[in-house]
Amino acid sequence: MSELKDYASCLSDPASRRLETFSYLPPMTPGQVRKQVEYIVARGWSPALEHTEPAHVAGSYWYMWKLPMFGETSVERILAEAETCRRAYPEHHVRLIGYDNRRQTQGTAMVIFRAR
Fold it and tell me: What is the pLDDT at residue 26?
């Protein structure tokens, strides 16, 4: 078995905090973000966007960006909305969520843009 790495983080250092599973990886490229949106659309899930300040990322509350995009199937429109949220809140993290309408749960959630 390979050596496990410790990801040191502390509340006093917002840059060290981990945001979810993908936060342990390098930031996603635009192509990788597109693939995640395509995954959500292919499953018929409803995409939604949320954002929060880096200092509050450890809390459970994220601000919803507009309403979830129920029934939206255009990857381009979803990506454009994500970019609009990012431009409106450049100092916030932006999270993409895919709501599974059938199971009434989040099918996926990931931070797609980290604060600049």
Answer: 79
